[in-house]
User: Fold these one by one.
Assistant:
Number 1:
Amino acid sequence: MELQAEGSLLRYGIIGVGMMGREHQYNLAAIPGALVVAVADPDPGSRQQAVAVASALQLSRPAPPLEVMEAAQSRPEVLVQVGLEYRYIPAVAKLIEQVKIGSIGHVRMVSIREHRFPFLVKVNNWNRFNRNSGGTLVEKCCHFFDLMTLIVDSRPVRVMASGAQDINHLDEIYDGEVPDILDNAYVVVDYENGARGMLDLCMFAEGSRNEQEICVVGDKGKGEAFVPESIVRIGARDSGRAGVLTYEVHDKRVKYEGLHHGSSFLEHLEFAAAIKSHGEHPPTVGLEAGLMSVAVGVAAQLSIELGRFVALSEVLDRKRS
Ligand SMILES: NC(=O)c1ccc[n+]([C@@H]2O[C@H](COP(=O)([O-])OP(=O)(O)OC[C@H]3O[C@@H](n4cnc5c(N)ncnc54)[C@H](O)[C@@H]3O)[C@@H](O)[C@H]2O)c1
């Protein structure tokens, strides 16, 4: 790989090189001037696979394990971007753009349906237990709560959820324990500005054309995004069904699709631009957005456990104490 002139080369370290870490290796290999120089991972199998990926990509050989970075908040000069890349899925980005330019008016409702396959097998099966991941509504659904909050443009105030583990992983046993993670749920989120969001999650729905269907309704119209069909539909109340516009969305900047429709590649482009701007353009997805997306997930898990609405303040105050 030809290196960029001194000063414009961005050097990356990846902490954890399982499935997602390797996706980032491929993403960065497709970005000029980006170079993975180190990985850290306690699992020898993951390290070996990262070296194999690096060799295949003709990148420099990673040198595991290196020191873990100091916590971002104690180093204000370090730029941090949270990996909420569903914002960058081309069809989702198009829908968000339409909402932000006012095509559907003042947003009142956002519903997100994720109907997909069960959780994949992970290194040492960490994702089979709530105690490791925080639970399904935290670990994987933080993306959807982030999208809701971004689209609604307000603060979540309370959450009510119903969910269970009905089908998946019940026949698996790890060190004598059966997994305890949810495989389906409905979650309702109330926002400060009166808007509401809803997540419909099902992880035994392989027979679906789309994995995500996002629907936003405002006082003027309605917008929908379908992934992976990569279709967006926008309609206005005053032009009815006949006036609904359909867009097929593609982003030519994507050089590596990965498992997330090119979104984790696009988030890297944005992060690299933020680094190169030397503070002029801070990363779009900061720590506050990350915190809120996870806090809604925690509140949803708690709501199922307690059988009642959970206020975000209960979760955030608990986190801070
Ligand atoms: N943003 C997304 O769309 C997305 C998608 C999948 C996973 N994830 C998240 O990415 C993370 C990793 O998931 P994955 O699918 O790559 O899992 P994985 O099991 O494939 O890989 C995780 C890797 O992290 C390593 N690891 C564990 N503890 C470590 C430590 N203290 N220091 C360094 N490495 C450590 C493990 O050995 C393993 O190799 C999880 O937090 C998961 O929720 C995000």
Number 2:
Amino acid sequence: MALSRRFTKFTRRQLLAAAAGVLSACRREPDAAVSPAVDPAKEWLLSPGSAAPDWSLLDPFQESITRADFERGMLEVLSNGALWQQVEVLDTEARIRMSTPQLNGPRYTLRFAAPGRPATRGTRYWRTLGELPPLSDSTKPLSDLHIVLDPGHIGGAWAQMEERWFQPPNAPAVKEGELSLRAARALAPMLEALGARVSHTRTRPEPATGIRPGQLLAEARESLLQDRKPADEEEIRREAERLFYRAHEIRGRGTLVNETLRPDLVICLHFNADGSWGRPENPILSPRNHLHILAHGCIGPDEAMLDDQRLEGLLRLVQHTPDTELPLCSAVAKRMRESTGLPPYHYFGGNARLVPGETYVWTRNLLANRIYRCPVIFCEPYVMNNEETIARFTAGDYEGLADVAGVVRPSIFREYASGVAKGLRDYFSARI
Ligand SMILES: [Zn+2]
């Protein structure tokens, strides 16, 4: 799940956590009139762990998108209006605010392509359906495709720190970071059998980043100072841990994906939760179970003010990423709906938007689906704190079918994986 808990009042730090996409949809206050604190003495307003934005990354994409496509992408995918306050759209170019604190500072000028001109690839490392080589073997529709599996969270000794565990009665502990690894292990051979090359952001319950919380104490002190929070040693230690698993761990994976692996797409594998499970030692179980898939978009007003998030969102737009990502998410949602039989999850709040014509696919601005510079399919099936799901976790992975909780069915990991694999097969079978 892409959730956190226990926030009732927004502070700057919590807003930044929201901007990184780690607050629960159901706990976020949709109409809260809040903005990040802007210090005009600073050069940038940034998300936690972000480097200064390099606006020259947009340079290779000059004249790569028409004004009509730019406006449509801004309105229908990237933002529900918030970005328009930061981007001035003229006839032949967009003028983009580079720094929120430097209100009257220089703007980045992005020139539009003439209508009818084919989109340029710029420095984009991933390939669209039309750019992949033609299929020579129709039984391997994923051939020549490089896919990265990104099992969400960490698990293992880190599960308690990252608050992604609970202990159900009479069953093994549930740790999302380990369940997502098991889903990845089930999925990889299915994708390889369809011809794909598969890489992983991690294969063990260990962080992908080399950074550890102990190295983030100064950053934690600064973060707490900005909130004017009393910074005793215990609170500083906790803040350093939050910065580690919410920001630096995911940014480490971003560096791996964008600079080393450079795949055609990333699949983020998560399990969801329903509401809060309360105290991990005595969790609240839910009768509900559901599924949804996330594509990137729906940047909110507070998020649009963060200079790094504005750049990353626009980079996705000029690379025409939503044109591939949204149909991919739709194809995977259709098959996961069939494989799991789960009803759709529905967000109530302003931080996610249902994609028109879909019932399972939402846009949401998460750190992982924003900073990976390629199409991302972010999967959120199954409610971990649902009793039937816990019984399926306890049954583990197995071949074929077995009776679990009174129903004969495949293991939860293979059911999850087969839905994803079939969705990708459907999408990439359109290659000629
Ligand atoms: Zn998760």
